[in-house]
Design a protein that fits this description.
Two copies of one chain form a homodimer. The radius of gyration of chain A is 22 Å and the shape is elongated. Chain A has two domains: 76 residues, Orthogonal Bundle (Arc Repressor Mutant, subunit A), CATH 1.10.10; 99 residues, Arc Repressor Mutant, subunit A, CATH 1.10.10. In chain A, helix 3 packs across helix 4, helix 7 packs across helix 8 and helix 9 packs across helix 10. By secondary structure, chain A is α+β, with helices and mostly antiparallel strands. In chain A, strand 2 and strand 3 form a beta hairpin. Chain A has ten helices and six strands. Chains A and B meet through helix 1, helix 2, helix 6 and helix 10 of A and helix 1, helix 2, helix 5, helix 6 and helix 10 of B. Chain A binds a DNA duplex through helix 4.
Amino acid sequence: MQLDKVVAYHKALADPTRIKMLIMLAGGELNGQTLAEKLGVSPATVTHHAAKLREASLINERREKNTIYFCLNDYFIKSNANAAEKLIYRNAEREGGENAMEESNKRLKDSVIRNFFTSDGRLKHIPVQLKKKLIVLQHLADQLAKGQTYTEKEINAFIKRFHDDFATIRREFIMHQLMYREKDVYELNPPELWAKWETLS
Amino acid sequence: MQLDKVVAYHKALADPTRIKMLIMLAGGELNGQTLAEKLGVSPATVTHHAAKLREASLINERREKNTIYFCLNDYFIKSNANAAEKLIYRNAEREGGENAMEESNKRLKDSVIRNFFTSDGRLKHIPVQLKKKLIVLQHLADQLAKGQTYTEKEINAFIKRFHDDFATIRREFIMHQLMYREKDVYELNPPELWAKWETLS
DNA sequence: CATCTAATTAGATATTCATTAAATAAGCTA
DNA sequence: TAGCTTATTTAATGAATATCTAATTAGATG
């Protein structure tokens, strides 16, 4: 996603009236006049803000006779909540130089993987120490396909190849943001979003 | 209302120069003049934008001699990417009247608190099941003052009144977004930002 | 067609905000 | 101390924008 789009998206959400509109629309579709009343502004103002929200793909419209009903574009809101974050960290990799810590982390990672996995690749047990647990989780996540979506069953089956307690590991995937779940569909998050031990404790 | 915070957060990200600054900072810390050069703006402009980003807790600063290095507040960026989304959907529930789930959740909450806390209010042990763990954490957080800031020591002392493993609980507070930490200052997040079990598993 | 309703546009105003140059402050060094 | 570097504040300017009223459009219905 381009810088312009990210800025436009955040501009759209950078106004109290528009946020209130979205909150109201989350309760169900509404037409312009009703919104105007509820918000205590003129219909013209609602039109103005609706245009902004539409440009940012945050709402959709449906016409019925004379009246136009607005509703949330649920999908877009969810899928763009992290837009800025993604842009920031993705571009950073390009800029960023490797520092010394990288090296030491790499060594730790190797040692954890050697110690917690058997020679045939199964996980002996889940590390208690957060830092090591994250390494293990990330090692598992690395073996899932990017962009691919999975059902819960598929995820369970995948994890069971490594460890019997698939429920715990599946939950930790979500908790540490290695994966993201919507309804019953699981998908890998990009590594930039993964919880990092440096920032935690 | 916490609406202000969400708006402020998005305002901070609603400017191309600020997004560029964040991208650059994601590559490592930089001082004002370097940023000004890279961005092609005056130092005064950088100061201006840095102030906005600081207000929104998106960056931190470190002073060395007379030069100030800015860096990303990684944690805050990650934990607030969904701020608007959460606010929108959370408030929608309120508008749409209480649903049946509310009732059942309330009962669960009562039972968890009865079962995991002793009669004098200490926590017997930390629940393993996420849903119950969140209830316990939220029950603890409810006993902290809103808006008040705490040092790490104070937080530790507070938690120790309930359970000896203050380090784990303190970490879980942050992990599940009940609190937010900047440098050494801890503060309660508004409940809208708290992790919700309905959305997890 | 005449009329009603809902939504949009146009024009006007006030506010917010990004930007800069110039002045000031804060901290270091010789 | 004087002098250097970096950052912040101030005041000014121009651009963007939130909001209103009044006029206009679009669609439906008599």
